[in-house]
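Box 3.1 — From sequence to structure: Sensory transduction protein RegX3
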Amino acid sequence: MRLLLVEDDNHVAAALSAVLARHGFDVTHARSGEEALQALVPESDGFGVVLLDLGLPDQDGYEVCGKIRKRTSTPVIMVTARADVRSRIHGLNLGADDYVVKPYDTGELLARIHAVSRRSVADDASAPGDTALWLGPVYIELPNRQVTVDGLVVQLTRKEFDLLALLAQRPGVVFRREQIISEVWRTSWEGTGRTLEVHVASLRSKLRMPALIETVRGVGYRLVAPAS
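Predicted structure (token representation):
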């Protein structure tokens, strides 16, 4: 798999590139946001994953993520020292598929890279259905993967849409955390649990309907269908 590593620290990049190469990755190193964007031109051979450090010398990493998402659907994993939920939600809102908080374990990073790669391949291979779901003011078009609230389009990331669609197909039914992670993230890796929480928080914020997805303590989540 080709991987684009966006990291301004040459020593960190060299060490990480060596580890990634030992695990079969073909790594391209970009030292700035501009280098990363140039590497992602439409006519390039394409990358399986972008590993994006947020502390870049020329542009804010969040800004770079937003620009990447406008150019390509390639999965983006943010690398950040900002561990607060608000920062992570902001990254997901800009289109990041996952994040790793510094300092991180190399095994965790590799697991997350493989996870987002599998999810991307599976999503691309999935044939869209012909179903739409109405949930009060929320309209979910499954074939086009589009969500509107009161007629206004809400921009969701790939996994945000998958999570919402899963819960919306069985309103009122409690989905266990393990079940959601298995069906949406296609993995049983325990570290995905925190990502699930952040995606739920992001959905509540984007849809401006915090009561739409209810947390069932110790179990998981369910969608509470709003009144029409």
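Summary of the box: The CA atoms of residues 129 and 143 lie 5 Å apart.
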